[in-house]
Specification:
Layout: E1 2-7, H1 11-21, E2 27-33, H2 36-46, E3 50-53, H3 62-72, E4 78-82, H4 87-96, E5 100-103, H5 108-119, E6 124-125, H6 127-142, H7 152-162, H8 167-174, H9 178-192, H10 197-206
Parallel strand pairs: 1-2, 1-3, 3-4, 4-5, 5-6
């Protein structure tokens, strides 16, 4: 039996994922968490075989939790399960110490397979992400990427701004203060020498950080 820890800040999502996971006779969810800090505490308490973490959680997010867990348990087997399909998040998840990255739009069969492979200590990436992620990792070995200067939260905030969200909306979604979001935004803009939201959108578009946005000046 694969003993799993499940971390997601939405209770209904956790309940649905738990139900899907336990449709497999060899997977059991033994602990749950609603944020990164709780995930670390539950990991230390229960020592699960696999930790399944969402990226976007209030306070400490999933990527920071992966880094913390990996720091005290180098053999930790972590699967990131998220709504974000972008390859940049997959690259960061792997560099943080996760073994797998899968989106919530996947099938239950693929989710079960991902958990089993990660449990075996094998890497799992969804089919649509695998080739792009490998190319990204190889490219990063050859050159310095300005995106690497950003923290996980700073990257997340820039991508949400490029999607058209305002700092107050982002703050509500991430359960942080608007002031905190503005701080992340300002720090990221200083690091990248960006002056306004249009330049943020252009940077996000040029670096292929998210899909489905139109670059500034190309609007119909």
């Amino acid at each position: 039996m694969i003993r799993a820890l499940l971390a997601d800040d939405h209770q209904l999502v956790r309940e649905g994922l738990k139900s899907i996971l336990e449709q497999a006779t060899d997977i059991s969810v033994i602990a749950e968490a609603s944020n990164g800090l709780e995930a670390i505490q539950e990991y230390q308490r229960t020592h699960p075989d696999v930790a399944i973490l969402d990226i976007s959680m209030p306070g400490m997010d999933g990527l920071d939790a992966v880094k913390q867990i990996s720091s005290f348990d180098p053999d930790a087997r972590v699967l990131i399960l998220t709504v974000y399909p972008e390859q940049q998040y997959a690259v960061r998840a792997l560099k943080a110490g996760a073994l797998g990255y899968i989106t919530k739009g996947t099938s239950s069969r693929e989710l079960h397979n991902a958990v089993r492979l990660v449990f075996q200590g094998k890497q799992f990436l969804s089919n649509e992400a695998r080739d792009n992620v490998m190319l990204q990792l190889l490219a990063k070995q050859a050159q310095v990427d300005p995106v690497d200067s950003l923290s996980d939260r700073e990257l997340q905030v820039l991508c949400l701004i490029a999607r058209g969200q305002k700092p107050k909306e982002i703050a509500d979604d991430l359960r942080l203060s608007a002031k905190t979001i503005e701080s992340y935004k300002s720090r990221a803009m200083r690091k990248l020498d960006l002056r306004n939201d249009a330049e943020i959108c252009r940077f996000v578009f040029d670096n292929k950080l998210i899909e489905g946005i139109t670059p500034p000046g190309d609007e119909i």
